[in-house]
Every structure is written in C-alpha cells, then in structure tokens.
C-alpha cells in the first residue's frame, strides 16, 4: 500500500518549527507495519492544499493531513480537504457543546468562529487533548485522515484512534519488531564498536544509534515481518549485558525519572536535593512524574555560596578550601539537604554550566554528591563537552544525578 | 518565484530523525527574501527521486535537493537527479585527490566507491565540513541545487555558498520584513479577532498567529519586498498597544526569563521563589539565563505542606483554613521565601498539575503569589485547560510567574 503525509503550516515553511509531527507519525505507523513513502509540507493556502489532496488521493491508499485546524482565518485545512475530496463539511453538535462548556469553565468569551473546531469530514475522530475534531474520510479508493497540528493533540490521536483503526482497516497482520534501549555514560562511537560483534550474529535485525539530549538510544528493528521475537529478545539481552554499567532502561516512552520515583516508592524512601548549576531542574524533573509526592517533600536551590551555608548549613570552610566546584562541596550539599529534610536520599549538584569558566574549571565540569541513610556519601565528577550549551550541560547533570540514584537503589 | 526543497532519506520516512535541514534552509533563504512553497520528503529510491525532480523542475524556479550523497550503495541522489534533469555526472579530480589525502591522513582504507563523493552536476559547490561535493545546475528554466545531508555540512554550504549565489542569481534586492511579537494571557482566537481591524489597515503585511508552549506568537511579515519598514514598525506598535496587558516582548529569539533577569539586574533587585506544583522549574528557568547569579541566590521547593511550614514558615493554619490551592497559601509562600532569603522579590507557586484533581480543584487550577519589598502582596489565579498535560500546566505556571514579575517591574 502507498501512504503520504501532507503537513500544513506556514510556520513550517518559514522554518520556525521543525516537522516533528511527520516523524512521530512515521515512527508510530511503522510499528503497525505501515510505511510512509512521502511527506509533503505546504503552507496555509487553500488552493495549494486542495490541489495537493486531489492529486495524492489518486496515487495513495492513505492520505494523512495534519495542521491548520485552529479557529482563526488562516486555518483553512478542513475547507481545503473538503474541496479536494469533493466532500461536505459537517458539524458535531456534541463537540460544539463541549467547546462551549470549556470556554465557560475558563471564563472566556466564545466567538462564532470557535464552532469551526467542531467541524469534520466523513466521521469525527475524538481529540482528548484539544478542541479541534479530527476527520476520517473513506474516499472511494483511499482513506483521508485529518488531524490537528499541536503535537500533544496529534500524538494522542495517532496512538489512541488512528493507529488501531488503520490496523483494522488495512488488515495489517504483523508489525515489525522494534525495541529502544537507553544508555548513558559511554560515547556513541564506542558503544557501537562494542556492539558490532553482537549485532553481526543477528543479521535479521538492524541496530542503529541516536544521540538524544539525555541518553544514547539504541534502536533494534527487525528487517522484515518474519523475524523471530525470541531472537529479538536474545539480541536485546546481549546488548544490555555488554553495556550493563551504562544501561538505563528500555521502551519508546522510557523516562528515567519515572523509574527512579518508582524505585524510591518501592523502598519507602524519600529524596531531596540541593542544586546549584541545575537551579531546581533535578527537583522539577522528579515532580514531572505523577505521584512524585510519595517520594518528595521538597528541597533547595542553593545557587550562591551564601545560600549553601544559610539554607543547608554547608560550612563556609568547605567552599573556601575546596572551591564551589569540588567533590567536598557536592558531598556537603548532599548531606546538608538530606539532614535538613530528614529523608533517606539527598543529592548535591555543583558545577559550571557555562558559557564562562568558573574557578579555572571549564564549562561542563560538574560534581554530583549523593548522601544516603546508612551509606557513605558518594561523589562523581562529570566532564561534559565544554562546547555543549548551558541547557545541555544542566540537563545532562540532572540525568547523571538520576542515574546515580538509580544505580544505588538497584543494588 | 517558486521554490521547492526535496529531502531524501529513508531515516526521515522511518521517523528516526526530524527534518531539521528543511527548517534551516527555509529560515536562511527567507532572510534573503526567498520563500519556499513546498518541502517534499522521499526515501533513498532512484525512481522516486528522479521522477519527482523531473516533475518539480517544470513548476519551480529553484529545486533544492538534500541528502543521499554518501559513498554507500543506498546513496542514489546524484544519479537520480542526473536522470531527472537529463544531465551528465562529472568527477572533480581535485576533490578526488582531496578525499584520497584525507583517507591517508586518517589511515582508513580507500574504496573505489569513495570516488562517488567527488561527483557533481553542472558546477561543483565546495563542502568545507565534509567530503561530498554539492552541485549547482542551470537547467533551462530552473536552478537545481544538490547538497549533502549531514547538518554541519549542509548549514555551512547554505550560508557560505548557496545563499550568496542565489541572491545574485535571482537578483534578490531586498529581503522581506518580518517581526515576531509574543503575548500571554489572551486566547489566540480573541487576540486575532481584536487585531483584525488593525491588520485591515495594513494590507501589505500578513499577520499570523501560532500557539507556542509558553506564549502566543504573532508573526508580521511583508507580503513582498516593496513594503515600507516604517509602516511595519507602525503596524507592530499598533498591535502591541492594542494588546498591551498581554505583551511580553518581540524578536525571533525572545526569552521572557532573559528579560526578567535583565530588569531585575537594572533595578539591583534579587528574586527567590517557593515552588509547589512547578517543583523548581521557575528557579531553573531563571538559572537558564547566563549571569542569573546577579539576581538569584537560591530558593525553595516546598512540595509537601510540611515543607511549606518547615522551610519558609507558612503557618499550618493558612493551609488548613484555605487549602493548599488558594490565594492565601500562594501569598504566604511568596512572603515566606522572600523573608527567608531577604531579597526584593519572592514568588509562590501552588496549584494542581494533574492528572488528578486536588482539594476539589481540577488540574490546571493554579495560584501565583508575588511579594515585593514596599508593595502589597499580589495573587493571581490561572485556570489552565484541565486537558493540558502535567508538563504544559507547570510550564505555563512558570511563564505566568515570569509575566507577573515582568509587569510589576515595568511600572
């Protein structure tokens, strides 16, 4: 079968955002064995969209159109698809009521144009994260699907509505096997060199690596739909065994903070932190996990040396004698915050986020400290590339902090 | 003039990487007044690429093809473009010698297929960051440009070679005028309805909106290169005046935290915060700005009610009588942290990040408190959409907190 994505949006053609929706759709539909042959991006232009849809439905079994379903005048996608497919716009009174309720709740004045988000073609596709309905239109020889552009809305609709329906509709029997494995602390090139002999023994699978902001992801995918799931599991197990010290976890939606919160909860432990270069990002990452309140009461951002002393009692001497960017300061921060909050695990983050050097240490120099009830305090130095951005350095410091807790709690 | 980008690569259609090259090209060429009308992504497929090129050169003045210029068998772009344009592959002996030298230096064995990276069509385009030559081909009525896929190579070639040559070739006199204006606190549809009469008076400009995670961006762009910069300024000033209470700032790289840090520094003020639902994200956002240490010593994450009392002295009574999610608690948090850190500005964040409701308040209910030296404490309630994700709600709470400080400091 042949499938095409049509991405609509002037902001895409102005280069203001990258087309992450197209990547997401390609990735997710690939899992049900449906490959996209072409992605076409066009602007919010009624004629351009309708002509494109008209042309593409002739050559494709699936035409998936995204973006341009907002309530404003430049959102013309649905009208354009209606013209291109010769079909009629319909309005869901149920959705219109829902939009009215939402506006009432938020105490915002409703305008007539808001009703446009209750329109659809063919059958409506529910949108749990937003107001604009999606559309599923059987159009003689092809299916045309229209989805809104905001990623949080689109992704949920792909996962909950579109993927399952496409699987049924096109009788997609078997999908490719795919698994994502996440690692931290070993450079990509060394990781792949280590793994070359392992991969060589499993020619039915492709093994590729991607550098992500907070880990290196190894993606294992079967080359066709005849691959054996047990062989896949065996290959993944061998990869994990080979790189055990760096392994974080597996899965497309893997999140290290979620794993750490779960481990803490299982052990009935609570965590706190004193953060300097990360400025609260570690605690914010812990709080991004629903149910974080089970394992986290609160903590400290101790950016200035004075705050380190005042809030968590880091002795001035420790900082004076060793410097702010030191194992001793990181350890004293970890111990100080843990003592103050009276919990089982305390972390200290200190280092140079950049762009400038500090105390003679280049940007990317980070010390982590971990204090645990009944254990000696640990410290760890990171030497992150100094050409990394301030954000990258801070984000990686947080991730290494999570890894430190993860490794300790697993033992 | 009409221009199209053809992006080549199976990895794009598998969704393994996003098409950041297309965004970069759109962004950079827009600066010289050249707009892209369409981006088409196809796989490493000889027939698909050559047919696409053949079709697109008929309707476009510029066809820019990227990716698939590597030395391996699946890199077929140059052969495909040659077929699609009916032109002959040539080999640069100079580049071939260069490739041989590089391989000798790196002590890697040279293969015959490496010679393919010295091939080009029309005229070669130098590649300072890689081995594959680019191509510039005058093809009767259109120009066809072929560039390699690795971003570091492509970006340098666009900036150093392609942009300047296109400017000459198409006699691009003047670039389009463009400005981004950022707003927060008024829904997109109301904003655009408000602005309709203003925009009506400036028909030479297009005014579009899009919803970003932390603001609504209004983009003003001249419709052609004949627009008057003074008219542009006048239009922007009118838009800002109309929506003053919601206006945050302007520019493509605008960042509200940077503005707030600058304002605080100008006034010699320091800031702190006590964060509940945001869990440290506000302070982390302040610390994302280089030089934040001028205005921020540290602060508190007070997730549990016990931490609110213990760390910043929020009276138990206040929480008991009014609830955690209340104006009174937000105010007491703001006052408590400001007193504790002894600084000029203190913020309190409390609310429901979701997914579950809290104390009968739906997710998205947020109270902000702001305590300032010499001013009465202010509070503000947000009613963010309850279908927003936990992250969206927390991120918006931070942004509204920044806006609260920004508005106060501007007066």
TrEMBL record, chains A, B:
One Pfam family named in its UniProt record: CinA
Domain of life according to the entry: Bacteria
Residue intervals of the MoaB/Mog domain: 4-168
InterPro entries (alphabetical): CinA (IPR050101), CinA-like_C (IPR036653), CinA_C (IPR008136), Competence-induced_CinA (IPR008135), MoaB/Mog-like_dom_sf (IPR036425), MoaB/Mog_dom (IPR001453)
NCBIfam families: cinA_nterm, molyb_syn, PncC_domain, PRK00549.1
Family the entry assigns: Belongs to the CinA family.
Name of this protein: Putative competence-damage inducible protein
UniProt source species: Limosilactobacillus frumenti DSM 13145
């Amino acid at each position: 079968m042949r499938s095409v994505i049509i991405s609509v949006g002037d902001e895409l053609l102005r280069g203001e955002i990258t087309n992450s929706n197209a990547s997401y759709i390609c990735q997710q539909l690939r899992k049900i064995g449906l490959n996209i042959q072409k992605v076409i991006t066009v602007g919010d232009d009624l004629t351009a969209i309708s002509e494109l849809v008209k042309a593409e439905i002739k050559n494709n079994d699936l035409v998936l159109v995204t973006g341009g379903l907002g309530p404003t005048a430049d959102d013309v996608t649905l009208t354009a698809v209606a013209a291109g497919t010769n079909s009629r716009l319909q309005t869901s009174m149920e959705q219109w009521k829902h939009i009215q309720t939402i506006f009432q709740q938020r105490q915002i004045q409703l305008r007539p144009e808001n009703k446009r988000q209750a329109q659809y073609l063919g059958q409506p596709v529910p949108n749990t994260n937003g107001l604009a309905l999606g559309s599923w239109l059987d159009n003689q020889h092809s299916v045309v699907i229209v989805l809104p552009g905001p990623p949080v809305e689109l992704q949920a609709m792909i996962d909950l509505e579109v993927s399952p329906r496409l699987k049924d509709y096109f009788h997609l029997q078997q999908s490719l096997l795919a698994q994502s494995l996440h690692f931290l602390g070993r450079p990509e090139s060394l990781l792949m060199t280590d793994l070359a002999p392992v991969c060589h023994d499993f020619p039915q699978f492709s093994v590729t690596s991607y550098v992500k902001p907070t880990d290196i992801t190894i993606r294992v995918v079967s080359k066709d739909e005849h691959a054996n799931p047990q062989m896949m599991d065996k290959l993944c197990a061998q990869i994990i065994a080979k790189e055990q010290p760096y392994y974080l976890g597996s899965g497309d939606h893997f999140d290290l903070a979620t794993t750490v919160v779960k481990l803490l909860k299982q052990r009935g432990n609570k965590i706190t932190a004193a953060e300097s270069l990360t400025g609260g990002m570690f605690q914010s990452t812990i709080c991004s996990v629903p149910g974080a309140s089970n394992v986290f009461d609160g903590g400290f951002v101790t950016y200035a040396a004075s705050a380190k002393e005042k809030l968590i009692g880091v002795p001035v001497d420790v900082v004076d004698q060793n410097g702010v960017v030191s194992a001793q300061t990181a350890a004293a921060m970890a111990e100080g915050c843990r003592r103050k909050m009276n919990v089982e695990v305390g972390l200290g983050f200190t280092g140079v986020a950049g762009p400038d050097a500090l105390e003679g240490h280049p940007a990317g120099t980070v010390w982590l400290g971990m204090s645990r009830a009944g254990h000696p305090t640990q410290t760890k130095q990171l030497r992150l590339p100094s050409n990394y951005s301030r954000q990258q350095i801070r984000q990686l410091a947080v991730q290494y902090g999570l890894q430190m807790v993860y490794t300790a709690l697993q033992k």
